[in-house]
Amino acid sequence: MPVNLGETPILRKPVAPPPPMLPPRDLVFEVEQFLYREARLLDDERYQEWLGLMTEDVHYWMPGIQSRHRRDKKPRLDPRRMAFFDDDLLNMRRRVTRFLDPTAWAEDPPTRSCHIISNIEVELTDAPGQYRVYSAFVNCRGRGEAEEYWLSGRRNDVLRRVEDGGLRLASREIVITQTVLLAKNLNVFL
């Protein structure tokens, strides 16, 4: 609880977060490799294989970000507001089909993309075979001769183990650091 000394409140006592249930190292390695492989598939435009990493009920969500004061108590991320992505598997397949269509002028010549994934944390959940995964990303896209756009942010994923023993992405929440996208388009998955 803050103590008010003039205008700036000072915390009385720091509070340590509860210790997480640490997952086995083999699981952490498997999740890291999953995320790195996913980034490579996206960078190589291997979208059909990338879509194969999704569950049938995947939810892929990137809300629009509003810059608001701390005293504004509305939820920071609100599913009722605008989103850049709010997709299920069918909508993601439609986006990929559009990216690859020869008449997609925004992708001819194709965007050159590099995904950098970092700060990966894996948490066990109450659901067997389902894991919460946090990560940070930077995406650099180059277009034409001189266009270059950067996106950075954090992801909150749920990965689920499927029948064949592999992992699949069941949901992704993407929170970018930018409130205004400076790129001319958003022809990228994050």
Automatic annotation (TrEMBL):
GO biological process: 3-phenylpropionate catabolic process
MF annotations from Gene Ontology: dioxygenase activity
Keywords: Dioxygenase, Oxidoreductase
InterPro entries, alphabetized: NTF2-like_dom_sf (IPR032710), Rng_hydr_dOase-bsu (IPR000391)
UniProt superkingdom: Bacteria
A Pfam family per the record: Ring_hydroxyl_B
Record-linked PANTHER family: 3-PHENYLPROPIONATE_CINNAMIC ACID DIOXYGENASE SUBUNIT BETA, BLR3401 PROTEIN
Stated family: Belongs to the bacterial ring-hydroxylating dioxygenase beta subunit family.
Protein name listed in UniProt: Ethylbenzene dioxygenase beta subunit
Species: Pigmentiphaga kullae
